[in-house]
Recover the amino acids of this structure.
C-alpha cells in the first residue's frame, strides 16, 4: 500500500513544504496531511506503511526517515527531531511507537 492510497498527494506535498526549513512537529504535520480527521482504522493503515520492517512498532531508526515514507521529496529528520517525535508518542517508555500510541498521537 502506498501513502497516496490513504492521503492526498497535494496535502502531503504542502505539509512537507511547511517543514523544509522549520523544526518538524508531528502533530502539526499529521493535521496538515489530513490524518487528524481520519478514522482510527485509517490512521492504523498509515502506521503500517510507516512500519517499514513490519515489527508492529516504529523504531527510532524508522522515525528518522518517516517523511520519506510520505513522499520521496521528504527530508530526513534531525536527531533532535527524531528524539522529540519518539518522546511525544512513546507513552509506555519502551523506546518505540506502537500502533495504538501512534493513533493517540495523531488524534491528540
Amino acid at each position: 500500500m502506498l501513502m497516496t492510497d490513504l492521503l492526498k498527494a497535494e496535502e502531503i506535498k504542502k505539509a512537507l513544504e511547511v517543514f523544509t526549513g522549520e523544526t518538524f512537529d508531528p502533530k502539526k504535520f499529521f493535521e496538515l496531511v489530513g490524518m487528524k480527521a481520519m478514522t482510527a482504522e485509517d490512521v492504523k493503515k498509515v502506521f503500517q506503511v510507516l512500519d517499514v520492517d513490519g515489527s508492529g512498532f516504529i523504531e527510532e531508526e524508522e522515525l528518522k526517515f518517516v517523511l520519506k515514507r510520505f513522499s520521496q521529496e521528504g527530508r530526513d529528520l534531525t536527531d533532535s527531531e527524531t528524539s522529540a517525535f519518539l518522546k511525544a508518542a512513546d507513552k509506555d517508555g519502551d523506546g518505540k511507537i506502537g500502533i495504538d500510541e501512534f493513533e493517540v498521537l495523531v488524534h491528540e
